[in-house]
Every structure is written in C-alpha cells, then in structure tokens.
Amino acid sequence: MGHITIDIIEDNDMWEIRFIDEGREYPMIKEKSYLKDSKEQGHLSV
C-alpha cells in the first residue's frame, strides 16, 4: 500500500505531490488552484 506526501512550495504557489509505492516514487506538481477547483478533489490518479 502506497502513501501520499504533499509539500507546499511557497515560492511559486504550487503543491508538490509524491505518491510512493513500494519504494517507487511518482512525483506530480499541481497548482494549488487545480486541486482546489478539481471535481476529483481528494482523489489522485497515478
């Protein structure tokens, strides 16, 4: 079972999201507004 870490990058108003599964890392960077406005809020696809 993987887990998700979220870091806030203050400099450019972005989220850095990392989905980590069995030692493999799937980085994603999204604008905060994307996550806030997304209909899929709380659900991330990797």
Report a brief summary of the structure:
The protein has 1 helix and 3 strands; from the N terminus they run βββα. It has one helix at 32-37; strands spanning 3-9, 14-21, 24-31.
Note the run of SSEs as H and E. Answer: EEEH
Looking at the structure, what is the overall shape? elongated
- Integer average pLDDT: 61
Q: How many discrete domains?
A: 1
Radius of gyration: 11 Å
| Low-pLDDT runs | none
- Content of β-strand: over 45%
User: What is the terminal separation in angstroms?
Assistant: 13 Å
Q: Which secondary-structure class do the elements indicate?
A: mainly beta
Fraction in helix: 10-25%
As laid out across the biggest beta sheet, the strand order is 1-2-3
Primary descriptors:
46 residues, single chain, mainly beta, elongated, three-stranded antiparallel β-sheet, 3 strands, 13% helix
Give an overview of the whole structure.
The model has no long low-confidence stretch (mean pLDDT 61). A hairpin with a 2-residue loop joins strand 2 and strand 3. This protein has one helix and three strands; from the N terminus they run βββα. The protein starts with a strand and ends in a 9-residue tail after the last helix. The longest helix is centred in the last third of the chain and has 6 residues. A three-stranded antiparallel beta sheet has the order 1-2-3. It is elongated. With 46 residues, the chain is mainly beta. 13% of the residues lie in helices and 50% in strands. It has one domain.
